[in-house]
Amino acid sequence: MSNENAPKxxxxxxxxxxxxxxxxxxxxxxxxxxxxxxxGANLRDLDLRAADLHNLDLRNAYFRQCDLRGLDLSHCNxxxxxxxAAKVSGVLFPEExxxxxxxxxxxxxxxxxxxx
Length: 116
Prior knowledge:
By secondary structure, the chain is an all-alpha fold. The chain has 3 helices and no strands.
């Protein structure tokens, strides 16, 4: 029996670049128009501070213990994402996420829900 909410892996070059923390390659591929489905992606333990995540659909992504400091995620879809123990100083979150949702996810790993 598979868990549809379990973090996913991929063989897509964008995902592999992120997993290898090759942010320069990731940003270069994005700049060339490369697209990738990162919904539900397992991005645990990565340093993503310089990654161009602008306008990405990151629903249900798993960011446990990631370094997200200083990122502008305001135009990303983070519904259902989890940021347990991530470094989030200076992160700009989407305004649809209530501060309480962010704190609960940060402290307990809950999936973030957008306010209605």
